[in-house]
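Input (structure):
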C-alpha cells in the first residue's frame, strides 16, 4: 500500500493533536489531584475581603482589545486556627470584580502552611483543571476520531 504526502501529513497532524490533547489532559488531571489533595486536608475559616488589588491584564497579546484593562484580585484577611490573623491575595482576578470590599467569604487553608490559602469557590479550585482537561479531551478526542476514520478508509 502506498501512502502519499497528504496521507503522511494527516498522520502527523493527527499524532500531534493526540499528543497535545494527551499532554493537556494529563496536566488537567494533575491539577485536579492538587485541588483534591488540598481540599482533603484544608481547614475552614471565615474571611473578609479587605481590599481589591487592581493589576493590568498581561495576557501575552500585544494587540489591545476592547475588554482589556485592569483586573481586580481580592485581598482576604482571616484568622487561622492558631489565632494568628493572616492575609492573602487570591490568584484569580476578574473585571468586573467577583467580590466587594467588606464581603465575607469562606477561606480554605493548609493547616501546616496557613499562608497557602484560597477562597472557597469554583474558580480557585476547579477552573484550571476544567480548562486543561476540557482542551485535552477535545484535542485527543478529535485526533483519535480522525485516526480511526482514516484507518478504516485505508483498509
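Output (sequence):
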Amino acid at each position: 500500500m502506498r501512502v502519499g504526502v497528504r496521507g503522511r501529513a494527516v498522520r502527523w497532524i493527527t499524532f500531534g493533536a493526540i499528543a497535545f490533547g494527551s499532554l493537556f489532559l494529563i496536566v488537567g488531571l494533575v491539577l485536579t489531584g492538587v485541588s483534591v489533595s488540598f481540599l482533603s486536608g484544608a481547614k475552614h475559616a471565615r474571611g473578609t475581603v479587605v481590599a481589591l488589588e487592581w493589576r493590568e491584564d498581561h495576557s501575552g497579546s500585544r494587540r489591545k482589545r476592547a475588554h482589556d484593562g485592569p483586573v481586580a484580585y481580592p485581598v482576604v484577611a482571616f484568622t487561622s486556627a492558631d489565632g494568628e490573623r493572616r492575609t492573602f491575595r487570591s490568584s484569580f482576578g476578574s473585571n468586573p470584580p467577583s467580590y466587594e470590599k467588606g464581603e465575607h467569604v469562606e477561606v480554605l487553608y493548609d493547616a501546616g502552611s496557613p499562608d497557602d490559602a484560597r477562597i472557597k469557590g469554583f474558580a480557585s479550585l476547579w477552573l484550571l483543571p476544567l480548562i486543561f482537561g476540557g482542551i485535552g479531551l477535545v484535542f485527543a478526542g478529535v485526533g483519535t476520531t480522525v485516526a480511526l476514520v482514516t484507518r478504516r478508509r485505508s483498509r
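Notes: The longest helix spans residues 5-41. Residues 7 and 150 are 9 Å apart (CA to CA).
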